[in-house]
Amino acid sequence: NEDKDIPEFFNAPTIMREWIAEKLIKIKIPHGYMPKDFVPKKVKILAKGARVAKFYGEDTCSTRTVQCSLKLFDCNHFYIKQTLPGSGASPHWTIFEGRWHATERGLRLEFLLRYSWQLSRKPGIEFAVEACRPDLFCSLAWDGETERQLNGNLPAIVGTDDLFWVELVREGDTTGVAKIRWNEEEDETGNAGRNDPPSSSSEQRNGASASSASLAPPSAPAARRPEAAPAP
Question: How confident is the model at residue 32 (pLDDT cuts 50, 70, 90)?
Answer without folding.
Answer: low
